[in-house]
Amino acid sequence: MGRFEITGKKTVSGVHRVPGNKNAALPMIAAALLTSEPVTLENLPDIEDVASMLECARRFGATVTRRPQSNSVTIHAQRLKTARLDPSLAAKIRTSILFAGPLLARKGKVSLPPPGGDGIGHRRLDTHFEGFEALGAKVKYTKTRLVLETGKGGTAYLKGAAIVLDEASVTATENIIMAAALADGDTVIYNAACEPHVQDLCAMLNGMGARILGAGTNRIVVHGVEELHGTVARIGSDLIEAVSYLVAAAITGGALTLEGVDVPQFAILAGPLRRFGLKWSANIEKCVIELPANQRLRMRYDLGDAIPSIADGPWPMFPSDLMSVLIVLATQSRGTCLFHEKMFESRMYFVDHLIQMGAKIVLCDPHRAVVTGPSPLRGTTVTSPDIRAGMALILAALCAKGRTTILNAGSIDRGYRAVEKELGSLGADIRRISKT
After folding, report:
1. 159 in the same domain as 105
2. Cα–Cα distance between 103 and 81 in angstroms, integer?
């Protein structure tokens, strides 16, 4: 998988173009299988998870034409030759489960191995299956296969229903929306996820002829249609990457301009970021965020000088994918903060690496950590356990004294494009060492 070698104490400064949102691109690739006409996705991020999803689409029989120079891809699922996915491919990515809804609606059956992905904790699939069953599908689960079928004689047939999700699962919401788009009648999804990537998916489907109302709220109504057509859809900006690079500049004293940012959505993250003293200016028309150099990083306490807590939750709450990044920011900020990771019981374990680098962190339990800063960090050898923790370790290495080696570089490639080139162009001393 290779490794990164990083020499810290270099200022990260300059202009960074924010790519398309990974979490929007993946369901939108799956949704392209809902029609026999070509679907073009623009602002496609050049990352490993996208490559894996496109390969899944190819295996099902779609023609995939990628144009790296324009960051776009055209997917033409005129004929789907199979509804069964190879286990080795499904193991590479958790969102292989997102093909269940489109294939169920289009083919009437689907057979998927259990999905892979990051080991950040138990991520249940029950919400997906309960939603499919409410639409009329039969679900069979074994340790090696997830089999869903509907209709008779191979004919896809789903019927609209009122569905109350037992959790506001993003992927379950997306899967059920895709299946319901071609169902007979109306589907009402209560406790639906509201994230920007769910909104992007719904906008794409409506562009294909679907009739979806309520995207961005916790009640989504899908009026089923007989068929969908091709479209051209643009993937929204990746707020997780935007904040990651913003923090890289802040903790190294640099000035950074972020281009291609969805400023109104970025503003939703302003509360937690401003708690650390970060200050920036924004231009909505130009889609630009500008961070001045030499930020004064200091924790803003709650009333009565109470230690603040940052907790994650469903959108528009603070996203879990940014928890690791903000923990590193806290190690370089004056003050103390409690981080409460409510969603995944293994995401916090990477802080052992930060402690090894000199961070003052108390891991209270699998879900909570107390961070006191600023801490002078020192370079060492660490291993990236998942996409977001891997990026957080890169950030820690950027402000650490000496050299840091980060093993398992490939895990970071799943969510961030050519991170050594992007950060290197901004002044970081980072290089990739390929595995020999």
Report:
1. yes
2. 11
Contact predicate 318/342, CB 8 Å: no
Residues 69 and 167 in one domain: yes
Name the residue range of residue 176's domain.
Answer: 22-234
How does pLDDT run across 260-277, given as a tens digit for each residue? 999 999 998 899 999 999
Domain boundary among 186, 213, 234: 234
Task: Give pLDDT tens digits for 54-70.
Answer: 999 999 999 999 999 99
Domain boundary among 185, 216, 234: 234
pTM: 0.93
235 phi and psi angles, rounded to 5 deg? -80, 135
Q: Same domain for 226 and 179? A: yes
Residue 273, domain CATH: 3.65.10.10
Q: What are phi and psi of 289, to 5 degrees?
A: -120, 130
* pLDDT beyond 80 at 133: yes
DSSP string computed for 219-266: EEEEE--S----EEEEPPB-HHHHHHHHHHHHHHT--EEEES--HHHH
Tokens representing 158 are 């789903």
What CA–CA distance (Å, rounded) separates 244 from 234? Answer: 22
Which of 81, 35, 74 lies closest to 225, judged by CA? 35
Closest CA to 29 of 96, 87, 124: 96
* Cα 347 from Cα 368, distance rounded (Å): 10
pLDDT tens by residue, 153-171: 545 689 999 999 999 999 9
Residues 170 and 196 sit within 8 Å (Cβ to Cβ): no
Q: d(Cα 58, Cα 64) in Å, to the nearest integer?
A: 6
Active-site residue identified among 46, 49, 86, 118: 118
pLDDT of residue 329: 98
- The answer to whether 252 touches 12, Cβ cutoff 8 Å, is yes
- pLDDT > 90? residue 144: no
- Look at residue 60 and give its three-state secondary structure: helix
302 is catalytic: no
Q: What is the pLDDT of residue 211?
A: 98
Which H/E stretch holds residue 55?
Answer: helix 48-60
Residue type at 313 in one-letter notation: G
Tokens 């490559």 — which residue? 51
Query: What's the CA dihedral at 352, 2, 411, 429 to 10 degrees?
Result: 70
